[in-house]
Design brief:
The chain is α+β, with helices and mostly antiparallel strands and about 230 residues long. It has helices at about 5-20, 75-85, 100-105, 115-120, 135, 140-150, 175-200, 210-215; strands spanning about 30-35, 40, 55-60, 65, 90-95, 160-165, 170-175. The chain has a single domain, classed as 3-Layer(aba) Sandwich (L-fuculose-1-phosphate Aldolase), CATH 3.40.225. It has 8 helices and 7 strands.
Length: about 230
């Protein structure tokens, strides 16, 4: 019944490795069937050259395994918390890609210093607050999801499909597992560019609101005009 979902999630995970956003068994991508409230996610600790669609684990939104013989990713509670709170998303991706992780582990948001960033992210990519000792010791992965959700109070996850978990790494999302992976690719590139820009000019400020609006809104939203008719 969920063969297509499993395949799409498997393919997105394999793309992580192919694009060198994840090595060994690091990182994970999930997808959700909103009608059935079923989440498909990479199994824990399985390396990418061993991953198959059949190995993808199916769960409900409470974390109960519906189908699959392997344990799901240890980050599953984070993914589930995002699905429960960000109702419009259909895929979640977590990596330790080098540049985005540098910003996350430096506890710094990625500033929007150019139009490349503004084409995809509507403003600076936010960083969460640091987790408390109790949050880390008890229900760490669930609390990771909670600090992300709290950071997004007042923000639109559709306009900002990425976050940096302070001291940890990035999470991204989208309408599908493939879209969540694409967000991770773009996030890594913008993180790399932002670091280079800050090295070249440490005093460089963010772009103006009018330039941010022009580049983001021409590609996204009801009045977007980038691409061919019917695309957004």
């Amino acid at each position: 019944m969920y063969e297509e979902l499993r395949k799409s999630v498997c393919d997105a995970n394999l793309e992580l490795a192919a694009c060198k956003l994840a090595i060994y068994s690091w990182g994970n991508v999930s997808g959700i069937d909103r009608k059935g409230s079923i989440v498909a996610i990479k199994p824990s600790g399985v390396e990418y050259d061993e991953l198959t669609a059949e190995a993808i684990v199916l769960l409900d939104l409470c974390g109960n395994i519906v189908e699959g013989e392997l344990r799901p990713s240890s980050d599953t509670p984070t993914h589930l918390e995002l699905y429960r709170n960000f109702k419009e998303i259909g895929g979640v991706c977590h990596t330790h890609s080098a540049y985005a992780t540098m910003w996350a582990q430096a506890h710094r948001e990625i500033p929007c210093v150019g139009t490349t960033h503004a084409d995809f992210f509507y403003g600076a990519v936010p960083v969460t607050e640091s987790m408390t000792t109790n949050q880390i010791k008890e229900d760490y992965e669930l609390n990771t999801g909670r600090v992300i959700v709290r950071r997004f109070e007042g923000l639109d996850p559709a306009q900002m499909p990425a976050v940096l978990v302070a001291g940890h790494g990035p999470f991204t999302w989208g309408k599908t597992a493939a879209d969540a992976f694409e967000s991770a690719v773009v996030l890594e590139e913008t993180a790399r560019m932002a670091l280079g820009i800050k090295i070249i000019n440490p005093n460089q400020k963010g772009i103006s609101q009018v330039l941010l609006d022009k580049h983001y809104l021409r590609k996204h939203g009801k009045n977007a005009y980038y691409g061919q008719k019917g695309e957004c």
